[in-house]
Amino acid sequence: MSQLRALDLVRSYGRTPALRGVTLDVDEGEILAVTGPSGCGKSTLLHCLAGILRPDAGQVLWRGERLDTWSEAARSKLRRTEFGVLFQFGQLVAELTAAENVALPLLLAGTGRREARETAVTWLHRFGVAELADVRPGEMSGGQQQRCATARALVTSPRVLFADEPTGALDSLTGEEVLTTLVRVAREQRTSIVLVTHEPRIAAYADREVTLRDGTVDHTGLGLDAPLIGGDR
Amino acid sequence: MKPPALLRLALAGTRTDTARVLLTAFSAALAALAAFAALNVLAIPTPAATDENAGRWSEQYSHALLREPGLRGGTAFALVLLTIPVLALAGQCARLGAPARDRRLAAFRLAGATPGQVTRLAMVETGVASLLGTLTGLALYLVGRELLDRPDERGQLALPTDVLPHGGAFAAVVVGLPLVAGLSSALMLRPVITTPLGVTRRAARERGPGPWAGMLIVAGVAGFIVGWPVMLGRTVDGPYVGLALVLLIGGGLAAMFGIVTGTGWISYTTGRLLRRYARHPAALLAAGRLMSDPWAGSRAFAALLAAVTFGAGAAALRSYFVTQDRLMREESRVAGGEVGDNPFYLSTISLVDLAVAVALVIAATGLLVAVVEGIVARRRSYTALVAAGVPRGTLGWSIAWQAVLPAVPAVLLALTVGTVLGRAFFGDVVRGSSTYAVCEASEALCADPATREQYTRITESAALRAVPDVPLEQLALLGAGALAGVLATVGIGLLFLRSSTATEELRTT
């Protein structure tokens, strides 16, 4: 069942068009890969779907409601409760430990300090970096940082996770390890993932693949090469 | 590298780099103005002694600080001291956008630039900006000199607009200031110059700064307390004058340095306490930042704390002079005379207060630069947090906590140390201790040198002693003003938070 829908989205940066009428659906628990060459509008589409950017025209529907008309505060609240966001790099707060970084969304939601930390450590354990709970990002490798960031994005058990090139800064082996864990955890808690990537190898983890070209949907198909991880395809 | 290419590469950069160049020029202009003003005071010629003017006063000036040759050195020194907050401002400006500049210069190294070329690039950027600022300062000084050259009704001048420093002195400032600025910027860029990979990842600080700054404060105050009696016991050419000056100036500087470095300890300790007990994410973020870079507080508040310490010391001196005036009036009343207030010292202290106010404004500007720099340097992390749903208000509160929490105890410490230094300088006010002879026989016996001693009793009149009040009202005003300045600068700095966390940053950072 479709829980997030983009209808004829248009978005430009100045005079440069990024999206020229994109329509797509994201079903509950689905892993959707958005692929395409550089500059085709992948990240812009993700930002519009996540409520980070407002489209110039078109609609973003979240469970039937016009998300694009919501206030900044309401969209922010949605992003920290129902959505999770994961970027390529630069998302951890350098001055906080891994556990504090992961606990941050929980603290924002009003969870008690002790409980937030315990939950954060549990999530770090799921991503195999529990021993780094009291370590700051500057002392971690890129892969370790990305595991912490992924744990933070999932700690609130979001309905949809938006991941923009989440393994782009990692080597292929580490990238696959991070992605395998991410997909397994997402399937366990039926979190949908919108995965922006330009790598076919990463897109193969998805249930479905949407290819953009020059701001429009060029092709939609199944991620046929995707491995079976933690659930049915 | 040819000079045009050097200049082009040195001045290449983003809006932040342009802001840094402009602010560096601005602080250089202020420093140049202070330096020219000091040179101007020193350029006042001392007239030859005459019967009418045994003190060799320069009667063409309305204020004693310029008129009396003995006071002009101190006035020039005070003007040079004004450059301290200006230099602190310049230091803050140099840090604006420093991470991005470091990355750019490291990229030049990767592209094949030699360490010497990168050093020259950094020096040219700061040097050109400082030269522009110094020349602007020179122009402002010359224009201001013309505009303010207005004698009063008695034909006296408020400022020494009738003299000009020596041409060599002008040249020394115009050349020296940009040179010093360029050299210091090259020094700060050493890690980038050494490695083409730029700034390496820093391991987190395991232990915070120790409370050793407290020892500096105690030593500084002790130097001040010991220095003044040594000064009083001096002879003009005696051996103790140098020692007394070392104790007083060294003590004052040690105490000031102790306060500034002590802020690092205060920041770390506040951060540690906050991290232990914080429940709100804003406080947790602030705690993390206070602990990870406790010296940021020292850097940001250095000029502000120096100005507050100086202001508190001036308030203590004012209290001393007010008490002294009161005792003089009492003394003259007992003697049957009537003495009015002596406004000289109080008006001099008012000038010091004015200098402190100027220093506070400059320090607040430096703080604003520090706040904005902190936001801009972390914009990628902030934008990612905003994108993840963290309200900007939470980020704003964390920045405010980060500034205010160490500022409150640091300002209180500066007020206390400044007051103690001011009190130690002169101590209690003592007036009227004198001896006189009382004749206990006939006048003839007391007048006869042979019997005078036998019939004359020496009586000592009781000295009037008073302890100057602690100037609580002025200290409260000064402290409140400093904290209001901190809050105002944080408030203005937060205006940059929205633009720095605009979602476009996700594409560009």
Automatic annotation (TrEMBL), chain A:
Q: Name one GO molecular function term.
A: ATP hydrolysis activity
User: Which InterPro entries does this chain map to?
Assistant: AAA+_ATPase, ABC_transporter-like_ATP-bd, ABC_transpr_LolD-like, MacB-like_ATP-bd, P-loop_NTPase
Q: Per its record, how is this protein called by name?
A: Putative ABC transport system ATP-binding protein
UniProt KW Disulfide bond keyword: no
Q: Where is the ABC transporter domain?
A: 4-233
Stored PROSITE patterns? ABC_TRANSPORTER_2
Q: Name one GO cellular component term.
A: plasma membrane
Answer yes or no on keyword Transport: yes
The source's superkingdom equals Bacteria
List the keywords (alphabetical).
Answer: ATP-binding, Nucleotide-binding, Transport
Pfam families associated with the record: ABC_tran
Automatic annotation (TrEMBL), chain B:
Residues of the ABC3 transporter permease C-terminal domain? 94-195, 355-431
Q: Which residues cross the membrane?
A: 76-97, 118-143, 163-189, 210-231, 243-266, 300-321, 354-377, 398-426, 475-497
Kindly state one GO CC term assigned in the UniProt record. Answer: plasma membrane
Q: Write down the species.
A: Micromonospora avicenniae
Report the main location listed first in the record: membrane
Name of this chain's protein: FtsX-like permease family protein
Q: Which InterPro entries match?
A: ABC3_permease_C (IPR003838)
| Localization (cell) | Cell membrane
Record-linked Pfam families: FtsX
Membrane topology note: Multi-pass membrane protein
